[in-house]
Amino acid sequence: MMYDWVTDKSYVLNYTAPAFLLALAIIVLALLGTRFFCSWLCPFGALNDFISLAGRRILGKNYELPLEIDARLRYIKYFILFFILVSKIFVGSCILTGFDPWVAFANLPGLPGTFKEIPFAFLVLLLVIAGAFLIKRFFCRYLCPLGALQGILVGTGLVQLKRSGTITNCHNCPSCSLNCPVNIKLGDREFIDSPECIHCLRCVGGSCPMGINPFELTFANKSLKTYPYVLGTFTIFWGIYIGIGFNGVLGATDTAGVGIMPRKTYNDGIYYGTGFGFSPGLKVKVEIDDGRINKIDVVEHSETSGYYEEAFIKIPDGIIKSQSIEVDAVSGATYTSNGLVEAVEDALEKAKT
Predict the structure, then answer these.
(1) What is the CATH number of domain 159-219?
(2) pTM reported for the whole predicted model
């Protein structure tokens, strides 16, 4: 999405602005050196935590893989991130969309109907739930491409966790390592500079059985209190996600086609059409100017979240550019694409001279 926005001047942010702003907020925080989103805001991370808690209550503990195997498996998420970027650049869409457990998680309220549209995504979600039942933050550690991206960006090191005292103060207590949701072995580290750290702050006082603060927050090597850090990061995140969105800084870019369809094929005006996508009730508004398709807006729909966004951008844009409804369906959103074309065709039938 961000790649399209940067490289394609005709890209429209009408329907994807919230997702765009979310990505922007996460990237800004990561560049500041913190994976705050992973620990404090990510709903999928919260799901992993609750499932792990259930596993610990039922089985008596969560399990850990041998350190060497654990370290190797953590590279999987970086390969997934690389594959997503390469497929987007060279293919134009993410091939893994149909396997995305995030999408399945977002569409749980639509079961059982949504299972027919994204069966493999739900199967991967079941795998993630099973993994989280046994291993803390299973998805975050091994599979999350967003976590991989943040792990790369936090290399700026502006926010760090620094040991506040000497290692002898801890008396070799393993509490911090055992409580770490991503299983970072703190040992005698002076700094926690691992890209796997999600800044949950469990090692920063409060839960220490020795009654000390093993680590403290620093920003640009200056001590930072917990509350200002949490308040500041929340402010930055919501300031970008909500503040910029409400102020309309990103705006929506209108698109207009320059196809070869003869003028006066249609009567000028605004026409409405309906179609059947993944769900019924997909309604569009088509604007005809000087006999040509000038603008297409979706005014009503009940499509599957996580899939319709790309179709709502590419299908209207393709129709306007080609001045034809003969456009390719968006991979992973075939039903929505076909329903959108059907709705536009219905509107154009009413506009014919």
Answers:
(1) 3.30.70
(2) 0.67
